[in-house]
Amino acid sequence: MGNIDYDKKACVFNIQRYSIHDGPGIRTIVFIKGCPLRCKWCFNPESQDPRPTKDFGSMMSVADVYKQIKKDEVIYRRSGGGITFSGGEALTQPDFVEELIKVCNANGWTTAVETEGYISERTITRIIPKLDYVLLDIKAIPEDVHRRGTGVSNHRILKNALLINQLAKNVVVRVPVIPTFNYSKKQINYICEFSKYLNNVNTLHLLPYMTVGRKKYKKLGRKYEMGDIAPLSEDDLLPLKEIVEEHGFNCVLGG
Ligand code: SF4
């Protein structure tokens, strides 16, 4: 496996084995720190800061990660699985991800990324064509709604979605469904309308709001802005699933 820079480093805050929700087959997820968004519901708030902090994340080299992900290579082969890069926003560290993609390719493991799309066009054109699957978050279409929930405008994200659609081998749109933000037929309808411009997309995943991150905010000394809003169940999303299907997409709940 020549031509791979095994010394390249990034801050990794978790490596999760046996995932079945983040791309095809059985996968290991490499969570990379650093995210430019500040979603009010973020259940990995410790992932937002790109640096290692007191309890969260450590600098790992490509060689360190390889050692960990290699443990399940038989499972990847048998299940058609592989490695998913997540975060934070994994593509804030394109050099690191690119080297790991080379490692996966050399071993015959499939590669996927979960991205919120708030990244440079340069990174998209460089990395996206090299991946087997892209799980692209689209959170809201009205700019003011998006800004209120995530802290940033969605102009760049929607423009990038069109580019990712052109360049990705396989792309799925993922929508975290969040009360007080986009948990309505109207908002999901907007997202479906936009997704029709993404001619390579035929599946939308609706992910119900979870409160698993709530305790972490306290540990980080931050306020949890969602307060005590209850989590959603997959049943709560059934009326929204119907809308997605009426628009002609496959809809997966909790995918
Ligand atoms: S995009 Fe994801 S990681 Fe970033 S703040 Fe939002 S929920 Fe958290």
TrEMBL record:
<dbReference type="InterPro" id="IPR013785">
    <property type="entry name" value="Aldolase_TIM"/>
</dbReference>
<keyword id="KW-0408">Iron</keyword>
<dbReference type="GO" id="GO:0016740">
    <property type="term" value="F:transferase activity"/>
</dbReference>
<keyword id="KW-0479">Metal-binding</keyword>
<keyword id="KW-0411">Iron-sulfur</keyword>
<keyword id="KW-0560">Oxidoreductase</keyword>
<dbReference type="InterPro" id="IPR012839">
    <property type="entry name" value="Organic_radical_activase"/>
</dbReference>
<dbReference type="InterPro" id="IPR007197">
    <property type="entry name" value="rSAM"/>
</dbReference>
<feature type="domain" description="Radical SAM core">
    <location>
        <begin position="21"/>
        <end position="250"/>
    </location>
</feature>
<keyword id="KW-0808">Transferase</keyword>
<keyword id="KW-0949">S-adenosyl-L-methionine</keyword>
<comment type="similarity">
    <text>Belongs to the organic radical-activating enzymes family.</text>
</comment>
<protein>
    <submittedName>
        <fullName>Formate acetyltransferase activating enzyme</fullName>
    </submittedName>
</protein>
<dbReference type="GO" id="GO:0016491">
    <property type="term" value="F:oxidoreductase activity"/>
</dbReference>
<dbReference type="InterPro" id="IPR034457">
    <property type="entry name" value="Organic_radical-activating"/>
</dbReference>
<dbReference type="InterPro" id="IPR058240">
    <property type="entry name" value="rSAM_sf"/>
</dbReference>
<dbReference type="InterPro" id="IPR001989">
    <property type="entry name" value="Radical_activat_CS"/>
</dbReference>
<dbReference type="GO" id="GO:0051539">
    <property type="term" value="F:4 iron, 4 sulfur cluster binding"/>
</dbReference>
<dbReference type="GO" id="GO:0046872">
    <property type="term" value="F:metal ion binding"/>
</dbReference>
<keyword id="KW-0004">4Fe-4S</keyword>
<dbReference type="Pfam" id="PF04055">
    <property type="entry name" value="Radical_SAM"/>
</dbReference>
